[in-house]
Amino acid sequence: NAMLPILTGYGGRDYVPYCTGCSLCNAAGQGGGSGGGGGGPSIPSAVTVTTASLSAAVSACFAENAAGNCQCSGASCGVLSGPISQWSFTGTNLDMGSLFEGRTTFNQPVGSWDVSGATSMKKMFKNASSFNQPIGGWDTSSVIDMTEMFAGATAFARDISGWDVDQVTTYTDMFDGADAFNAKYSCTGPKCSG
């Protein structure tokens, strides 16, 4: 698995997938951070979603509660129900781009979500300035676009070094303005220079 190139291209240049052999390290040199999937109990049966039905469910959740702390009872969130942290779904070729973009008070635990069918996470948490939940256990092996995924997510500072990013082709500005993350982590290794 390729390691995520953390600061390669820092300063607005493109994040490029050539940081093989790098490791995510705490800026103080102690390694890692808090990681893991986390996120609450799992629901036994998963609902199959499409990009449209997932996006509609997330929008309905935020219509119910601006911070994403929704209950989604009945069919209020379409095919998904219950708190957003407990949603159990699967899907293929999912575009999760902009799902939480601009949701400045969103900080719900979504680490248990099955994102293995996602192909895009472009701008997923862009400007979600309160988000700082553990998502290090996500299966990102199908994702090809992580452009601006955490841009402006000023609170996010979780360890995502275990992500499989072999398929990712675009990292442009992935951590641009992600102040807490950029202060805590650095990319180390022979191919990490800018």
TrEMBL record:
Listed Pfam families: DUF285
InterPro entries: DUF285, Liste_lipo_26
The organism's place on the tree of life at top rank: Eukaryota
Descriptive protein name: BspA family leucine-rich repeat surface protein
Source organism of this protein record: Ostreococcus mediterraneus
Source lineage: Eukaryota, Viridiplantae, Chlorophyta, Mamiellophyceae, Mamiellales
